[in-house]
Design brief:
about 230 residues, alpha/beta, TIM Barrel, two-stranded antiparallel sheet, 9 helices, Aldolase_TIM
Length: about 230
């Protein structure tokens, strides 16, 4: 089944009540949660990571500050907090820092990322070349692609070509909101996708809405993966 990563973020910032939202969450099939290195107290992320690990889940940390210094601070934070995966810009220094025993998996972005919220630039051919180059690096465990954070090329085309070119799993991030996109992500063979604000929007008025939406997304993941099996049998 295509993997769903719940981002405990809104507008590219970790929500201040991330720990409480997680504690209230009822979604047995959810395997991974994610936060960003902005908007949250590191101690809260540490406690959140501990709680997720106790539940058998993994934690992904996305580095929002794309500057060189910001990325370096983020990698140090990831090592300190004990998260399982870290997403950021490609850097040989980061790859070296995250290659030691017990270090989190390194999932760099494919393509050029800039702005806030992040925007992807690059042609399908450039992204494919980037995917081949990065996935060949020993320290890289996966790649992150943001096909819905650009408007120049059809996202399906970027998805298919990048996944085909990559030698490691591909996580789709940013702008995933509905069943059609989830089906496209599964059909392309991507490892999974992130979703945050769309699942968290009504939590203040209805705390149970997060669990309901997360379980609905998980249902869509099952359906998308099941459809692939049917097509293969045909």
């Amino acid at each position: 089944m295509v993997n769903f990563v719940l981002m405990l973020t809104e507008r590219d910032v970790t929500i201040p009540d991330a720990l409480q939202v997680y504690r209230d969450l009822v979604a047995d099939e959810l395997r991974t949660i994610a936060v960003k290195d902005v908007g949250a107290d590191p101690e809260m992320i540490r406690e959140l990571t501990r709680a997720a690990h106790e539940d058998g889940r993994s934690v992904l940390l996305e580095l929002a500050d794309m500057s060189e210094k910001g990325q370096e601070r983020g990698y140090e934070l990831a090592l300190d907090l004990g998260v399982d995966q870290v997403v950021g810009a490609w850097s040989p220094r980061a790859a070296e820092a995250l290659s030691g025993p017990g270090a989190p998996q390194y999932w760099p972005f494919a393509g050029q990322m800039s702005g806030s919220p992040l925007v992807l630039t690059g042609t399908p051919e450039q992204l494919s070349a980037d995917a081949r180059r990065l996935s060949a690096a020993p320290a890289v465990a996966g790649l992150v692609l943001m096909p819905y954070r650009q408007s120049t090329y059809p996202p399906r085309e970027l998805l298919r070509q990048t996944v085909d070119a990559s030698g490691v799993p591909v996580l789709v991030a940013g702008g995933v909101r509905g069943a059609e996109q989830i089906a496209d992500i599964a059909a392309a063979g991507a490892w999974g996708f992130t979703m945050g604000g769309a699942a968290l929007a009504d939590r203040h008025d209805d705390p149970k809405s997060v669990s309901e939406r997360v379980n609905e997304v998980l249902r869509l993941c099952r359906e998308a993966s099941g459809q692939l099996v049917i097509e293969e049998v045909k």
